[in-house]
Amino acid sequence: MTHPSHVTTIAVDAMGGDFAPGAVLEGVEAALTADPSLRVLLVGSADTVEPFAAAHEHCEPVATTQIIEMGEHPAAAVRSKTDSSIVVGCRLVKEGRADGFFSAGSTGAVMAAATLVIGRIKGVQRPAFATVLPTAGAPCVLLDVGANADCKPEYLAQFAKMGASYATAALGIREPRIGLLNIGEEPGKGSQLAQDAYDLLSGTTGFAGNIEGRDIPAGTVDVVVTDGFTGNVVLKLMEGMSKHLLGEFKAALMSSPVNKVAAAVLKPSLGALRDKLDPDLHGAAPLLGIDGLALIGHGSSGPRAIASALRVGAVAVRAGLVSSIAASLGREGA
Amino acid sequence: MTHPSHVTTIAVDAMGGDFAPGAVLEGVEAALTADPSLRVLLVGSADTVEPFAAAHEHCEPVATTQIIEMGEHPAAAVRSKTDSSIVVGCRLVKEGRADGFFSAGSTGAVMAAATLVIGRIKGVQRPAFATVLPTAGAPCVLLDVGANADCKPEYLAQFAKMGASYATAALGIREPRIGLLNIGEEPGKGSQLAQDAYDLLSGTTGFAGNIEGRDIPAGTVDVVVTDGFTGNVVLKLMEGMSKHLLGEFKAALMSSPVNKVAAAVLKPSLGALRDKLDPDLHGAAPLLGIDGLALIGHGSSGPRAIASALRVGAVAVRAGLVSSIAASLGREGA
């Protein structure tokens, strides 16, 4: 490493996302300003990363010549485009030059590159995407949100441990309560997968049993474990519901002149509420189980989401997320 | 039938639900008042159903001596308690004395009784629970919401047809657009189940392809097809989110004295919004695929939800839901 040990280095894909590179650069600038211990390796085309790095402290350029597009087959693209921003970013992590990698580009490509280039933590069967959701109580971790559409019970048992490590590292929750997403509270309920996962999870530290859909927004547990199909539906549904209900609420506020006056009075409070419900606040999903930090952002990430992703990434690195996952899964084998 | 043909007769389980019989009786009273063509066969213990029926026009008592409790094993209870309100209610449908049966009691027991006593429509592989959800556009039908935790692709293909029949019968949508709930829009995305179901659905009238979680509240399609595990999680999550977000709004409105004044101005509009989002408005889920109408209410159904269930039930009966499903599935075989 070329930087002092108290500095956290994140490689950032300057070319990934619907609003790249503009939104990425703005987000990096905000993150560097907010966190003097953050260092960014900005990965992308020379004409984008070099001028920006020259103008910003704690930022170094890593010029690449290729870009993996959204439509490409992930694994094939990762194998053929070895000088793409995604592959090079993962290589920086593998070589120890960066503590983590962030991209708002193709989720499939980042997943493939993280798995092929960085590799899994020993013993991990399937890496899983985790995300942090706002709830009526404290935020909670949901995983898998889409890395594995079809799961075996053993995967879910590992997701529980990885999710608990992430809740500790990212949210500071010392003894996370883990819930298995199911369609009934009692043991023996649900799909065969959920029933078998329940049995496997029964001995796990912090396992609080089954939870149902309504328990997620209620904030009943700190970690919600499910397969990548259900988790992805849940995540997108929650985003859609927040947007829909805020829209309905806004329409109600604007439905008459006298309402509009009242709405003006309420504006600051409603702005704070919107912020609280904003998924951008925890906008990045780490791929847990990789032997290094790999973070994915929404394709539609704006500067704020990107800055927040880098903040979350730095927090996870400083909390020793990867070694904590390795230790937690290692205990399983012992 | 002992009633004129233009009258719709619903058998109602007076003993089912957390607030039975009080809430059921209040709901029946409201439904009878609202709909002069509705006739109710009130099924339950004599001391409950007889005085009520004596005091209300268009209501007849059917006295039973047994109750299936929430904790009982559904199929076993249905087989042994042949004079329970749930079994007798289904028998009234089987014998043609009622057009439909409603209960807010044990979902499992109603499902078992409907299947064992009334029986399936010929050709139906698995009956499915359907529910109507509020969206940003028109309400939409979601199924299966919990009858089948594990599904085969063929079940989902039938759910699509049954759901379309229900959207036409209950919501008056002539050519319903059907979406398959998935974790990506393109064909070939998702779990093995979703991929195989997509292939089967490709020829179905009205099939609009894959939709994602966020498309449900957006109201992109009229019928959302999924397995009973995912559907149940979606339904309960939407209920939880509505409750959570309305709670957050309320807290924001009450966060300062000046906000409270503004909130008072907004009260009528917000009341209308709460009503719009209220799942009680479409509070009953029919078990589609049964050779007669079987409707389940939330265990926590209040009078309003029960009245609404009877309204929905009468609408579905008058629209010929059961024969429409039979015809739609019959076309499949032809």
Structure description:
Chain A is an alpha/beta fold and 334 residues long. Chain A has 2 domains: 1-124 and 289-321, 3-Layer(aba) Sandwich (Isopropylmalate Dehydrogenase); 130-279, Isopropylmalate Dehydrogenase (3-Layer(aba) Sandwich). Helix content of chain A is 48%, strand content 16%. The first copy, chain A, has an 11-stranded mixed β-sheet with strand order 3-2-1-4-11-10-5-6-9-7-8, sandwiched between helices. In chain A, α7 (192-201) links the parallel β7 and β8 (207-211). In chain A, α1 crosses α11 and α3 (74-80) packs across α5 (107-118). Chain A is globular. The two termini of chain A are 33 Å apart. The model of chain A has no long low-confidence stretch (mean pLDDT 91). Chains A and B meet through α8, α9 and α10 of A and α8, α9 and α10 of B.
Give the SSE map.
Two copies of one chain form a homodimer.
Chain A: E1 8-13, H1 22-34, E2 38-44, H2 46-55, E3 59-63, H3 74-80, H4 85-94, E4 100-103, H5 107-118, E5 128-133, E6 140-143, H6 153-171, E7 178-181, H7 192-201, E8 207-211, H8 215-218, E9 223-225, H9 228-253, H10 257-277, E10 284-288, E11 293-297, H11 303-318, H12 321-333
Parallel strand pairs in A: 1-2, 1-4, 2-3, 4-11, 6-9, 7-8, 7-9
Antiparallel strand pairs in A: 5-6, 5-10, 10-11
Helix pairs in contact in A: 1-11, 3-5, 4-5, 6-7, 6-12, 9-10
